[in-house]
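User: Here's a chain of 567 residues. Predict its fold as tokens.
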Amino acid sequence: MSVGAEELLAPLDEQQRRAATSLLGPVCILAGAGTGKTRAITHRIAYGVATGVYPPNRVLALTFTSRAAGELRARLRMLGTGAVPARTFHAAALSQLGYFWPQVVGGQMPALVPGKARLIAHAADGLHLRLDTAALRDLAAEVEWRKVSKLSVEQWAARAGASTASGHPARPLPPRVTIEQAADLMQRYEDLKDERRQLDFEDVLLAAAGMIAVEERVAQQVREQYRFFVVDEYQDVNPLQHDLLALWLGDRDDVCVVGDASQTIYSFTGATSDYLLRFGAEHPQAPVLRLESNYRSTGAIVETANRLVRGRAGALDLRAVGERGLAPVVTEHASDVAEASAVAAAVVDEIVRGTAPSDIAVLFRVNAQSAGLEAALARAGVSTRTIGAKAFFDRPEVQHAMSTLHAQANLVDPATPLFQSVSDMLRVVGWTHEAPAGPSVEREKWENLDAIMSLVDSAPAGTTLRQFVDDLRDRQQVQHAPAVAAVTLATLHSAKGLEWPSVHLVGLSEGLVPISYATTPEAVDEERRLLYVGVTRARTSLRMSWAARSGGSGASRRPSRFLADLG
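Assistant: Prediction complete.
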């Protein structure tokens, strides 16, 4: 070992040290944002190896994204325990399935479906259903939710048919697709997979779990291979992953789970914090340890985060280790355009005062909000990079809209008001005055088109359609200019796991945060947690803002109900 056991404990605080030295039996670590969670679990694994408790090749560290698994591997290598594997649930299951399939079933393992949407399109053709790309993607997501929730097609249909208090179906579907059609499509999709001898990613988990449950020799080999488990981000586990973990463990209990219920923001994919919060009941002998010393953010930011989730299930009481710092600022603006301009001006001021552009992030709820922000920052001469989604002008519906606008730019009477010209053209490609109900790709597509409508507000009086289209082209070129130092633009979902010294949270109004289709108490709580994730991304500076009027639709707004809890 290049690092001694006591050396591994030296940089840890008291809470982290207790977590790192609790090596055997079930252990639950509730780790708040910025509390050194990754440090604690990697030092725990390294300490277990250094003291001889863990054979490196019998430990399996599990997480939910390839990026997070890569970070765990890098940290473990630095601590001298690079032989310990760190994988996603899917990667671990796929490895086991590839090894055991020839022995149990015979022959090569079936190929993986390269993408659900294409196969669902083939299934739709067989049922004489005409579906656009957005609908195919929404149905692919629903197939995934059904399978990780361990529901048959019939059970899914019954669940989808149930109504919430708002009167909307419990499971959103694309427009003009009935529950019966969706169920038929799901079954046809499964039949096509079988005919083509293919598996999707959820099948990988299901097949691995099935082999371990049914084949005793498979179960024995898997359990001999891995004796000690560490599961990061346990608040994101879904029912299928929970069951697979139980099968990997068998009758043993050497599992350490780590998570933060206040950062559960993927319920729409089937993730649930219930398993984290019930871990103590599931394993009565397990110590429940807490990491609550926040090393990331100033005291004022930590207090803001605490107020947001205080009294909620599983909420931790974070304590800032550093200085108090400046209180977060909340500002109101007349419109989305005014808000974007104000954010751009504030960013320029930060850069002039010495903050590196890469130390600044602007976070928002939906991808479509990036358009106005990209434009405002470009006008201010600030380079940007967008994470978590395609750049605005690269999105298919935006490119379609721009092509349509360009084709008509010279045909429209220059005296026609710009709002009328743009709205007429965008209706051709799918924009409507009212947004589609529910979270979906269709909704996201609408929001991107509505973002183009919002750019009409910032156009000078008397702008013609031709001039508007030329301005869009210019903005597109600015977006693609090479940027070495750039301000980050990101959705709140894609910002999880990241941090910046300075964070701007924009669009904190009703209808955006919480999003308009969050109509149940559970959905609103998830929106609250999403804002909590945004707040806890900031180290030293946090600015929050909202606009009293939207762009394309011109509707008036109220401030987010969550802001009342931050005052």
